[in-house]
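quick q for whoever's on today - can somebody do inverse folding on this one?? i tried earlier but teh output was garbage lol. tokens:
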């Protein structure tokens, strides 16, 4: 294996890990939530002081931190998007002033990037809200199953038959 092949392999492994990490983290968070613990720091969650973000239950400290992180990310994305739009307009105006016939391409490209970023932010926020709705629904379904005793029935069915007392 020469150096180039090695570099290629490393890039692929890193990419795969980067794709797998969110699934792993989500699974871990779900397991913690099911055990009544905060999805991030794994501390026991008090009943009256828990918060739902991205479909996961968090303690007050983690919720505050996550909220701040999300807000910063959203501001950064919106800022970048608007900067792209403004830059595109600026570029196009200066190219046109120089008599460059491709000025419209700069406008199209940069405003496309800007709009793409804004749309991406919007989608991310929307999917977070959808995650919350789904999280509530899953929790209700699990609680209902427990109330109906379905989990108990299944457990009894799985017991080996020993001829009775
Ligand atoms: Zn926490």
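ok took a stab at it. sequence:
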């Amino acid at each position: 294996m020469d150096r180039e092949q090695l570099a290629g392999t490393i890039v692929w492994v890193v990419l795969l890990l980067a794709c797998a990490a969110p699934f792993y983290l989500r699974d871990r968070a779900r397991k913690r939530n099911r055990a009544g613990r905060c999805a991030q720091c794994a501390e026991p969650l008090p009943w009256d002081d828990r918060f739902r973000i991205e479909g996961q239950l968090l303690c007050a400290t983690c919720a505050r931190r996550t909220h701040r992180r999300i807000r910063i990310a959203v501001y950064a994305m919106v800022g970048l998007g608007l900067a792209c739009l403004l830059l595109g307009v600026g570029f196009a105006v200066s190219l046109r002033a120089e008599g460059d016939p491709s000025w419209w391409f700069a406008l199209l490209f940069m405003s496309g990037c800007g709009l793409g970023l804004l749309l991406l932010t919007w989608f991310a926020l929307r999917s977070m809200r959808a995650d919350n709705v789904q999280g509530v629904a899953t929790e209700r379904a699990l609680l209902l199953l427990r109330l109906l005793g379905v989990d108990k029935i299944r457990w009894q069915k799985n017991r080996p038959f020993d001829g009775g007392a």
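fwiw The pocket of zinc ion is lined by residues 38, 40-41, 43, 58-59, 61-62 (CB under 6 Å). also The helical segments are 3-34, 60-97, 103-148, 150-157. so keep that in mind when u check it
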